[in-house]
Design brief:
Layout: H1 3-17, H2 22-32, H3 38-48, H4 57-75
Helix pairs in contact: 1-2, 1-3, 2-4, 3-4
């Protein structure tokens, strides 16, 4: 995993643990990571689904939601 993706991933998991969701979570990641992009956020979201720190069902649904929303945004 590259340095930029790791930064986005760590920030995303931190936001999930804090209880952020949807646009709040996206804004949290983009404001704290200069290297964030829709593609990196989508990849980090998918990787976060297998993180041991993200074990709550609601958190998993939030991470799935952000991955799907921003992937669809990229598709046009």
């Amino acid at each position: 995993m590259g340095r930029k993706l790791t930064s986005v991933y760590d920030t995303l998991v931190r936001g999930l643990i804090d209880g952020l969701c949807d646009h709040e979570l996206y804004d949290f990641v983009t404001s704290r990571c200069d290297s964030s992009s829709d593609k990196r956020i989508c990849r980090a979201s998918i990787m976060a689904m297998s993180d041991d720190r993200v074990s709550d069902r609601d958190a998993l649904e939030r991470v799935y939601s952000i991955a799907a929303d921003h992937r669809l945004r990229c598709a046009g």
